[in-house]
Amino acid sequence: MGCCPRGVFQPLIFDCTGATRKLAQDETLLLGPIIVGPALDLLTPVITVVDPTGATMFEIIGDTAARGNLLVGRSGIGSVITTANQNTIFGLEGSGASLTTGVGNAMFGWEMAPLLDTGDSNMGMGRRCFLSLEDGSQNVGFGLFVLTDIVNTDNNTGAGHASLLDAEGSGNTAYGHSSGRGLVGPGDDNLFLGRGAGNTGQTNGVDNTICCGVDVVSTADNQIIIGNSLHDDTVITGILEQATFPSKADQVWDDVGVVRLSDGAARDRFFEEYAAGTVYTLTATPAELNFGTTDPILTITEPGTYRVSGHVTLEYVGATFAATQDVTLKLRRTNNTAADLTNGTTIYKLQIVTTLTGTAATIYWEASQYTTANTDDSLRIFADVAATPSAGSVTASAAFIKAEMILL
Of the residues 83, 118, 138, which one is the last residue of a structural domain? Predict the structure, then answer.
């Protein structure tokens, strides 16, 4: 082993005898190039660095009988290797101390992968990453307390303080401080991007989710959550495509799975009209509700499929009925071939009453999904009572009609 004065660069040439000596406090140790190969079959250190008291600080093993390993750390590093090769370990406090047959691992830092045994192609840089990892492969961790709980799972990547701290699944990726920290135990193929993404409030055991943004979390499998409650605008340009027809209601897609979000057109997805004016008195003849000032009439100006609903409040006004009577309420299109909406009719039965004044009922009902290719369908509420009261009247004191687009 050779040394050179401080500030002078000179390649260090050493033999394979394992000879060591203390470094003087005014010397600098330069290493390189370190020559390894078949001739070096020793498990004894190539270089031992000690403190002024003679205690070992760390050891450098240029190679072992397993070939191609470079290990720098406390006494005992590499002592259990059997066939492991092509590993690089720079670390203290047990980093890589359990390695036996693993191939192609690289660990840099304090207490990195102390239990790693047979796993391959793992890489870590930081402090106390992979504390439980034994035979998992192709995992990557950067930071403090990253991926500390995985044991035999593969293909995880964590970058940032405590990223995927307690995750035990495979194929998870997290970037950012505490990203994926709330995913405890199982859960595969999740992506967390941003500080706190997948942390507080994250549901355990979920698979195949994407969370993008500060403190964004997923609560069920196959979710994509982009942005948090502080975001005011979301801009997506081009064409957004879905490979299959939507499986849930309320999704806005056409029948080939394509929706255009940024084509410059202003699209109305929600139509509603509230009645205002004077109350409407029901008769025995079906007629549209007329409140004088504003009637519950809406015009759908966008082709698509809609959820259409109606709401009417019925009142007794000094009414007398000797028998029960039916009030019929209908959602009806009055143009483009007038017709009642499918399943858009509801019936309410009035009770036997004598000179009663008060609310009879507040009625809400929905038609079946309503599909139109037109841009001017006029939808209205019609009402009638089977027989008018012998005294007083029955009125509609409030009403509204709504249409919400559910498919383009």
Answer: 138
Burial class (CB in 10 A: 0-12, 13-18, 19+), 150: buried
318 in Cβ contact with 360 (< 8 Å): no
CA angle 10/11/12 to nearest 5° reads 110
Number of CB atoms found within 10 A of residue 376's CB: 10
- 98 sits in the region (left: phi over 0; alpha: psi -120 to 50; else beta) called alpha
Residue 246 tokens read as 């939507």
By mean pLDDT, which of 108-117, 135-144, 231-240 is the weakest?
231-240
Q: Is the pTM of this model over 0.85?
A: no
In this structure, are 1 and 130 located in the same domain?
yes
Q: Let me know whether 150 and 108 are in one domain.
A: no
Q: Please enumerate in sequence order all residues whose Cβ is within 8 A of that of 185, keeping only pairs 6 or more positions apart, or say none.
A: 166, 167, 168, 169, 204, 205
Segment holding 225, helix H or strand E: strand 224-226
Q: Which residue segment(s) compose the domain that 363 sits in? A: 270-407
